[in-house]
Amino acid sequence: MITLLQFRKHLHRISCSMGVVKYSIKDLERISGIKAHTIRIWEQRHNILNPTRSDTNIREYSPEDVRKIITLGSLNARGLKISKLAKLSEEDLAQEVLRHSENSQDVEFQVEQMVVAMVDFDIEEFKNILNQNIRLLGFEGAFEKLIYPFFERIGILWQVGSVDPVQEHLISNLIRHKIIVEIDRHTKSGDANNGKLLYAFLPEGEYHELGLLYYSLLAVKNGFKLLYFGQSTPFESFKDAIKFQAPDVVLMSFVQSMETQEMNDMIDYLASKHPEMHICVSGYQASKLDPDHPHCTLLANPEQFRTKMREILA
User: Fold this and answer.
1) Fewest CB atoms within 10 A around its CB: which of 41, 71, 144, 240?
2) Are residues 172 and 201 in the same domain?
3) CA 285, chain centre distance (Å)
4) CATH at 31
5) Are 67 and 45 found together in one domain?
6) Residue 7 included in any domain
């Protein structure tokens, strides 16, 4: 039987042969938070990385290098000297990581190890970290204390091109599945019994649904019956759904670039046709809207949604 370390090395060799993207030293700096100057010093003094060179003599790093520099940086930030860490075998490094991973209060370390698992395509390790935190913190605690900051970190890295989109998609779908299973569990348990109906959807062209799914889970856990329309829902079709049965709450999310006027038009239409309906809007683009919008509640975080649900049920 091969060890996990042997399997990772085997997977890495396969990945490299398939032309997996290489990382620049600036990528390593962005992903790990360690200055490029420091990385060069660690290379020269401790021989911790072995980058290849491009045709133009530029350093190129592998996903394995990314994993190692994050691990070393994380442990170094927690008091272990780089000179000592450089002498440890990968198995000993793994033991140090395991020891620190047991501290659920060290959220930053947990997030860093999730980034390592993502870069390494180590889905089992990612799930282990997530499941451990769900056991310790509960689903909501793990999502808000761990998953939110993880995706904030990934979002920054994705925007600057330091993370391959396939990595982000892989992890996003794993988290998506977790939330859907949790929604289904609470729906089947009979939690949705307060008599209120909530519609959740992403407008046409919107595909980033994790935030909307999580808010939908919170609604189900608080007794709302959920109709989840999902990604890229044409607004004209959504109008027909509301004509058929108007919900008590409409929850929508704007993440991709959308004109402020278009967002306002959608909200104003819903408010004009169903003035008694509560409209809740989340997502990055929602920050463009008037924070005192007369027809909707802007959600900056889950606690605001919990507060809104309490108001609706009062």
Assistant:
1) 240
2) no
3) 17
4) 1.10.1660.10
5) yes
6) no
* Cross-strand pairs, 297: 280
What is the pTM (predicted TM-score) of this model?
Answer: 0.74
Domain that holds residue 26: 21-101
Mean of per-residue pLDDT scores for the chain? 84
- Of the pLDDT bands very low, low, confident and very high (cuts 50, 70, 90), residue 288 is confident
Residue 203 belongs to some domain of the structure? yes
pLDDT category, 223, cuts 50, 70, 90?
A: very high
Residue 10 pLDDT more than 50? Answer: no
Parallel, antiparallel or unpaired: strands 197-203 and 59-60: unpaired
Q: What is the pLDDT of residue 237?
A: 92
Statement to judge: residues 177 and 194 lie in one domain: no
Sign of CA pseudo-dihedral 147, 153, 158, 159: positive
Residue that terminates a domain, selected from 33, 68, 101:
101
Report if residue 12 sits inside a domain: no
Q: What is the pLDDT of residue 280?
A: 96
DSSP 175-244: HHHHHHHHHHHHHHTT---SS-EEEEEEETT----HHHHHHHHHHHHTT-EEEEEEEEE-HHHHHHHHHH
∠ CA 243-249-254, rounded to 5°: 95
Query: Do 66 and 16 contact (CB within 8 A), yes or no?
Result: no
